[in-house]
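Comment thread on ticket #2218

A.B. wrote:
> Attaching the input chain for the structure job we discussed in standup.
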Amino acid sequence: MKREAYEADVQMLIRQNRFLWLTLGGIVTALVLALLVAWAGMGATRTVVTPPKIEKSFWITDNTASGEYIDQMAQWISYLTLDVTPDNVQYKSDLLLKLAHPDYHGALQQKLRVNAEKIRRDNAATSFDIRTVRAAPDALAAVLTGQLKVLINGTPVKNEIRHYLARFDLDGGKAQLIQFKQVKNDDVKAALADAALDDETDGSF
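C.D. wrote:
> Ran it. Output below, let me know if you need it in another format.
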């Protein structure tokens, strides 16, 4: 009886060991597959992100981005720049500076400082109602068209259609502002040509 019980225990241990080895083999296989998938994704990482105001998802890599990304970033820049009051102009200016390319940070900071002083001095408020956005993902740029309104001491002094060009650079998968300026129309190619002339002169925004 003891011999039969011993043999039964041995068989049970053999089955348990076989089950453990199979389980371990499955874990190792899954780990290897996970490592292969991670390795295959290295080198051309595409990150899915969302804009500050979530409307649609978009993607960005180390050196290119989707049209949706440029569209949403351009709108965010226009909001920080053109929708301001004496109470929020400094806060929005600080947010905008965080998005500026290092080479353009100083010029933008000076421009924002002058603009903030003028907004507070005149007790002005501006708003920009976007009508269209024409993005050029290959150039990391977009032209926004909309209705610009300006109030001084609560009195409307300006209400007109304007066009603005927003240009970006990519650094490590992050968009950085390199230019935001008023342009003549919504022709992106013409606006980029004018921007190139600015770069050749003083690189101003």
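A.B. wrote:
> Thanks. Noting for the ticket: The CA atoms of residues 124 and 154 lie 8 Å apart.
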